[in-house]
From TrEMBL, chains A, B:
PROSITE patterns in alphabetical order: HTH_GNTR (PS50949)
Organism expressing this protein natively: Paraburkholderia phymatum (strain DSM 17167 / CIP 108236 / LMG 21445 / STM815)
CDD domains named in the record: AAT_like (cd00609), WHTH_GntR (cd07377)
Keyword Ligase annotated: no
InterPro entries documented for this protein: Aminotransferase_I/II_large (IPR004839), HTH_trans_reg/aminotransferase (IPR051446), PyrdxlP-dep_Trfase (IPR015424), PyrdxlP-dep_Trfase_major (IPR015421), PyrdxlP-dep_Trfase_small (IPR015422), Tscrpt_reg_HTH_GntR (IPR000524), WH-like_DNA-bd_sf (IPR036388), WH_DNA-bd_sf (IPR036390)
Molecular-function GO terms, alphabetical: DNA binding; DNA-binding transcription factor activity; pyridoxal phosphate binding; transaminase activity
Domain of life: Bacteria
Similarity remark: In the C-terminal section; belongs to the class-I pyridoxal-phosphate-dependent aminotransferase family.
Pfam families per UniProt: Aminotran_1_2, GntR
Domain HTH gntR-type: 21-89
Sorted UniProt keywords: Aminotransferase, DNA-binding, Pyridoxal phosphate, Transcription, Transcription regulation, Transferase
Protein name, entry field: Transcriptional regulator, GntR family with aminotransferase domain
Amino acid sequence: MNLLNDESLLSHDRAHAQADAPLYERLAAHYRRVIASGTLAPGDRMPSVRALMSRHKVSLSTAIQVFRRLEDGGWLQARPRAGYFVRRPAASKLATVAEPDIPVLPEPARYVGLHERISRVIERAQAFPDALNLGGATAGAALYPTERLQSLASRILRHKPTLLTEVGEDGGAAELRQAIAKRALTADVTVAPDDVLITSGGVEAVNLALRAVAQPGDTIAVESPAFFGLLQILESLGLRALEIPTSPTTGLSLEALDIALTACPEIKAVVAVPNLQNPLGCVMPDTRKAELVALCARRGVALIEDEPYRELVEAAQPARPLKSWDRDGGVIHCASLNKALAPGMRLGWMSSGRWHARVRLLKFAQTRHNESLAQFVAAEFIGSGAYDRHLHRLRDKLRVQREASADAIGRYFPAGTRLNLPPGGLLLWVALPDGRSSDALFEAALPHGIRIAPGSIFSNSERFRSFIRLSCPVPFDERMDAALRQLGRLAAGIA
Amino acid sequence: MNLLNDESLLSHDRAHAQADAPLYERLAAHYRRVIASGTLAPGDRMPSVRALMSRHKVSLSTAIQVFRRLEDGGWLQARPRAGYFVRRPAASKLATVAEPDIPVLPEPARYVGLHERISRVIERAQAFPDALNLGGATAGAALYPTERLQSLASRILRHKPTLLTEVGEDGGAAELRQAIAKRALTADVTVAPDDVLITSGGVEAVNLALRAVAQPGDTIAVESPAFFGLLQILESLGLRALEIPTSPTTGLSLEALDIALTACPEIKAVVAVPNLQNPLGCVMPDTRKAELVALCARRGVALIEDEPYRELVEAAQPARPLKSWDRDGGVIHCASLNKALAPGMRLGWMSSGRWHARVRLLKFAQTRHNESLAQFVAAEFIGSGAYDRHLHRLRDKLRVQREASADAIGRYFPAGTRLNLPPGGLLLWVALPDGRSSDALFEAALPHGIRIAPGSIFSNSERFRSFIRLSCPVPFDERMDAALRQLGRLAAGIA
């Protein structure tokens, strides 16, 4: 298939339901896919403006806008007098984070005792409210469609003023459940609107999923490192965590999970973040996703999939969730709009397979239905072409921010620093050399007005004490550059 | 103190922070308090228009507006050629619901097994979506300040467009926590804004409170009858309920609670709704509230106070929550704006005494912070005089609706029907005569387009099977009258 001609562009567009986007946006999206799929590789020369005009029968100004969008998005690089070339990914000079060892026997499952440590970290950070926050996992408001959502909200309120004063719908607004079910189709997930349950962010979804499948004292297999919020949920529910080694490139080790499931038949569930794992940033290859679903089904263990970041993955095709391989309702799929669309709307959702009825009871008894207005705003935005256009821009901006930050880390951090540059999102997982303490770096950075996330909060063990999670929430500017230079200096000075 | 002169009116007004209300509103509020306090009793003649003009130095038109407001609110009744008289409460012709027996030994604590029964009731009702819903506990949108909230929301969004796209504040927006802490002062509760935690409705607050003080398998003392949502929470958390007889006039029986605490030292907490108990509608006298707090403190048992309805109580002074007697942090106070201000905003809050830190962890791990916009809208509305004006109107309208419904029940229901007419809210608790089955009445009413709440869902026992909870959510009109007539006929025909 020739990806560079008109026909394929149009068919791609149909598939991505972006028919209402301006022509230059559609063409730019087309070339992003061409580059992401490898048809145009890093260093390749981009077809000329003239070639674009004749190939796609567009005007000069449209062709120029396409180039501008791609350059702004960091996909192309202009070389004076030579034309445009596909940009090489940056930061390749740093070695990637090492793969974990797979022990013959798993560690024992343990109750989580992290909340105090995490609270101390948060409390310390709050003493420096003006610090540049590189310790969070949410992009700045400037990366989200703030004005569009605001005007949508006002318009919807004018048309449905009783949204604030009428009891909402159990399970969530039908409009939003429908929009989510429809969009799930693009990721090969078939789910009925009635199977979608709207939650207060992805956190509540994971919480409900765990309550549905486990009782206090039960054991849950989790990735190591894992999002500290998940470990706090386990702690708050009195569940034991069994940490499974997780590859910074291919995700949860299926080999290690297999060993753990054999050694500990009391494991009730596995929680995995297959797309842009937090903090590693890795995306599980599809073959391994399918294997994970099959393994859990074979062992009769619930598989809880947490994916706040899936829409941020850069790939030629939408990244697939584990749920798309689920045949017997054994996967509880938890997702959220916090990272992809609007951190302030607190919207998550879940599709709970064979635990649907129990999850509905738990949700009803826990928080009833969600606040209505945000649901209607999200339904309308997701249902329109605007959502895909926003996501394209968001992914582009985040890539530029990630790469610039990774470049700066390569320049400023001590030799031996290792780093994963993930295919999406805003998180970098950085290994400090020579076992330097990231807790010490966290403490040293605060008085310099810089907040980071120390590796110690991502595991119930001590094993990530010389890692840090750095986010790239805002456009890379002098303040970011200076902060990373300062961090590098501080890291060099730490034992 | 002469309540009828200018000075006391002004001082009252200061206390109620309504200085910005129009003069006739302030005067009407003054006379409502005079009537509620009994200074002007039912049947008393209201001072004349002329007397009002000279006493308060107001114009004829202002005086007339005062009379109109009081008449609309059902406080006064015009008698042709005789003037205005304080209205007698209606429905006095029905006997009140009988007081419960206080057994010498409590029933055993039992796990709650109500969810299926409740689900069946809800599912059956949903098959008749056009039915007049007298089974809910929320007033219709017309009783809430829909337009005002809508325009507030739009204005706030214009000024703070990033509310939708920025991460909210842990624990809730400072503005709302402050507004709530300030308002709590009017009910003799001193709480710092930092002690207030914003939740997803009152349901989440009670949920968090129970999770903070109890583990699965523990026993919780609850009122009998109790709000079915509370029983569902206990069921979802694997807690046992010990039902304490509750008086339809004075609330939770302290005698029975004392017996239960002696017989079952394993009781971890008591949950009580002291103001407008659901479904009974009773308000605990202040002396008993104080005794309940002291009893729980003496016994070392957590006291969880659920009060979605406090602001709907009609009394000369704001009704006091149990929390106002708490001296050692043993009371967890849970409240909500769902019934008083805006059912669609899903805002609740809690003040957790000595469990504050644990409740914060649980909330963070359960749903993080709330959606932001509704919090800012509520903060602004509560902080203004508009909230008190809205509550006056809401209470007036609900009283008229309650009394008209109670009148109609007296006219149409079979002889021997008993009824509580509560001092606020929208719920009537009705005892059918001769042990008629309310489940049968529920079923019989649906095909006639009428939905009620059968007593069977308000207890883990069978003891309320011939009770129904009827709500008065909308202005009494021909449809309501016809529905109650039909219900009466059906009740007469049931064995």
